[in-house]
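Quarterly update from the structural biology core.
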Amino acid sequence: MTSAVPSRTPRVSVPPHSQESRAQANADLSARMLRGVYSYPLMMSVLAVATDSFQQHPRLMWSTTLVLAGALVARLGLIIGSHYLYASRPVLWRGLLTLTVIIIGVCCGGLHACFAILYGIESWPFLISAIWIAGLTAGGCITFVPSMALVYWHLFLMELPIFLVSLRRGGIRGNTFALTIVFFIAFLIVQCRRLHAAYWQGLADRALEKERRRELEAQAAVLAEQAALLDLAHDAILVRDMEGRILFWNRGAETMYGWPAEQALGKICFQLLKTEFLQPINEIDVQVLEQGHWEGELIHYTRDGVSVSVASRLVLQRDIKGAPMRILIITNDITERKQAEQALFVEKERAQVTLSSIGDAVICTDISSHITFLNHAAEKMAGWSSQDAVGQPIANVFRILDATSREAIPNPIEMEFGLNRTVRPLSNRLLSPRHGIEIPIEDSVSPIHDREGQVTGAVVVFRDVTAARTMALQMVHLAQHDFLTGLPNRMLLTDRINQATNMALRHKKKVAILFLDLDGFKHINDTLGHPIGDKLLQSIAKRLVDCARDSDTVSRQGGDEFVVLLSEVERSEDAAITARRMLQAVAQPHSIDQHDLHVTTSIGVSVYPDDGPDPETLIKNADAAMYKAKRNGSQSYQFFNSAMNIGTVEGQSTPR
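Predicted structure, tokenized:
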């Protein structure tokens, strides 16, 4: 689909001096040629007086008058023809005019000659002069040369025979007339030279004028084509002079600002558009004059008063002499772009503030794994400032180790580039910062895509999980340990018994379970209060731990009951040694809040694999043995045997 070229063309004004000079030249030519025509009656009158032709032949007066009239008409025809030649009339008109002048000149000269022969005039020069009049008049018209010099040359040639006749006749009148002819011929020669020079100068001026007109027409055509092309542009294009007045206004400017060209032309550009400069206007003018151009952003207002942000380019145009002549202005509406930039800036600022405020560390990289952004949390954890880290490979800043092996592991961003998907949060990792100790972290990586879906970078988010891991460990500890004493509870004890029995089975060794129950604890707890009772339990737990090995486990089952796991026991008698040591340790006085408290304990012992295959059976049998020891008297221990299961129910009713 082609776009129509606008019909509007720029107006090109022709310099007025060309038309005025042409009119003046025609007026001068007409006046000078009329002066030449006026000399004909004078010359013919002098000729008639000199020859006395009118006295001798009265009828010759009419022939002479007719000849003079014909010569006058011929010269007037030459004047009119010259005017028409200057006016560049059609060739047909010039031809008809020339033919008419030739006919009139030939007829007048011929009649003059016929009358002279008919009446027998003794003046053969007069006949010759008549022939000269007709021939040269016709020749002058045929040449189409509108020259003043040609007119005077006609007169000069006509006067030559009259001068010869005057010399022949002699006498005062003849000599006087001859002298007059000499002066007149001299005057004609001077005028001829002057007019000849003026003629060639006129030819040169006319040639220059024609060339100038052709140039103006060519420039007008080029301007028309350029204006049509400029009207097709979407940008606003205008031209102003050095005073700021608008000389050209394309359709893009009409569309952008709402002002039609008829109303914009001639107006002051900055006043019409109410321009707001982001840079001082003086600096802009200086740059345009010195460098020839200027680029920047301006704020214009449309005809409706709407603000428009534009990107403007000013280009200085100079004349042939190098003087500043006009300024070309090209403006592009960037309002939407500025609004988008503002919205993008707001979003970027919001994202920047958000990323700087969150507790998680964020690092962004490009496709080559070079860092492009770090937030404050990342700077603090990695030990790198944003200024130092940007541009660095991610491996230099974000160095991670396996928490178990302490070995370096592949960077997750490199894994993400290979998978092109989000890598879920990974734990059990340590961050090795630039300065400081290793930090346990949990990190995740996501790719960054462009509009075409191609990966352009990645973002890694990681956090310090030291507190979370500590809390998790505390939660696990609380779930597996007694809150009061810190000893393992029943759940952890069961797990450790399973591990110990498995190890004993492989190593062909034994495992012993000691079940302890305090004697007299209830009386102390009821009389002195629960705080004293809790402290007493903590003191007993500490003494039991001191009696056990590092590989053994002391746990609290609840209340005043404790269970001790002795792993990898060579003989059953080894458990008896530990039991006696614990009996003595518990029986020692406990100084609590200025109270010396005395308690004893009863211990039941079961041995794996003799007394049971699993933790539940071993603990139950040790409990039965403990009841047996309690019935035998406090401060004693008892190994389990199968007969004890018979009296277990009865023994459970015994007060502790």
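DSSP finds 23 helices and 19 strands in the chain.
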